[in-house]
Each structure stands twice: as structure tokens, then as C-alpha cells.
């Protein structure tokens, strides 16, 4: 197997995980988790999103989190934004990295905002311009490129059209996000190989939900295709409000455990991450989709 020697993980539990929880975690608890994750070696963390507090009350304190961690160095703290107003909030609280998102589904876009995915990305131009003027880095995400509940499969041409739209507004870091949980390994491998060949100057991320138990296999396929940047979520928290039966993101501790056992470096202390994931599971008040939290590390079986 042709695999990388090291990969980078972005922890998305504080945003993609908690935004789907009925329990609204207080700001101090989020600060505690963030400090623990930084101490464990995570170098990329998605702290929250700059959405309407009325629409997403779980993310209402994102500004306060960025203000608290304004002096943190050597760790990329990023947030999801939807529009220029979100960028303005990012500027005001010292956020230095934002992520924009568009659905790859034409039907989903037309039903929700009456625009094509390409038109949605084109409207990001003013957000990108303000961010760059303010010294904020910008990345983009394409949700459901591996399939959607509306169209089923989505053509590679359609995905490349969205990528071209991102490049046109100046975004060269792009995440492929399997929010629908429909991706399968051979599809992931083929798409990632092709896109890297066509867009060699783009920095690629992969984001997998474990809706049908395929996330780990898809990460392995992505690594074999040469991808070295992946999202994951403490405890496997997460979901997708517009996808029937959607499960959470792949659990950070499961991914780190697999990579540790494969001697692929992450720079992250698994024992510390397990401790944080257990704490988060307790705070949200229910079991989460994490194998390692249930079974422990393989090496702990050996006495």
C-alpha cells in the first residue's frame, strides 16, 4: 500500500459536532476542550461558525472563543462563515482563517436559495475580498460531492465546475465533504487522484461522515490517493440536518488510533484525545459513535 508517512487532522467537533447537539455547551467548557486539544498536539481546530445565533444557538459564543484564544500561536483556529456579515464578525474577534461552504447538489441549492452551486460560489467574492484585505485566510468546502439525496450521483464535471468557481474568486484550499455519507472507497480514490492531477495548486482536505460505516475506509482510500489532510470530530459527534438518517463525523480518536497502529504520524497524543472525548461525551449526555471510546486502544489489551 502506498501511504503517507504523516497526515494533518482538523478537529471539527466544536463546530460540526456541537451544532447538531440539543445540549448547548457553555463557553468555559469549550475553552477547556480547546486547551486540551492544543496540548494534545492538534494544530488545526475549527472553533465554531459565524452564523445567526437565533438559527444556530450552539455557535453563539464563537466570537468569544476567538477573542479568548487571540494570542495562540502555531495553531490554526478557523471558523465557518456563510456571507460577508460572517466575515465582519471574524475580523472583529481576531479570527485568522475562515471556511466557506457550498452544496454540490443543484437540487439542494435551487430549493434553498434558488441559485446554482456556481452562482453561490460567485457570491462569495465579496467575502473573500474583505477577508483578504483583513489578513484572513480563506478556504472553501464542497458538501456532498460524492452523492446527494436529491440527485444520487453527481458528475465529476459538475464538481470541477464548482472548483473552477472557487478558483475564480481566489480560493485555493478546498475540502470535499461527504455530508450525506454516500462516498465509497474506490470513488474517493478515483476522484482524489483525478482532482489532484487537474488542480495541482489546490490544497485538498477530506471530510467524512460515518453514516454507513464507510468513513475509515474512505480515509484510507484518500491516503492511498495522496491526500494528507482530513477532518475528524471528538467522540464522532455531528450530523447533517438536511440528510435523512445522517450520522456523525468520523471520530478523531478512531482515526488517530488507526494511524498510530499503522505508524503514520499525526503528532497527536491519543491518550489525551480519548480523555477529552470521554469528557465531551459526558457533557452532551449520551453515547457517541466512537469505537475507541467503547473498546479502548488495541495496545492496552496487551498486559
From TrEMBL:
Keywords: Lyase, Metal-binding, Transferase. It comes from the Bacteria. Residues 7-274 form the Pyruvate carboxyltransferase domain. Coiled coil: none annotated. GO terms for molecular function: lyase activity. Signal peptide: none annotated. It holds the Pfam family HMGL-like. The keyword Ribosomal protein does not apply. InterPro entries: AIPM/Hcit_synth_CS, Aldolase_TIM, HMGL, PYR_CT. PANTHER family: HYDROXYMETHYLGLUTARYL-COA LYASE. Belongs to the HMG-CoA lyase family. This is Hydroxymethylglutaryl-CoA lyase. The lineage of its organism: Bacteria, Bacillati, Bacillota, Clostridia, Eubacteriales.
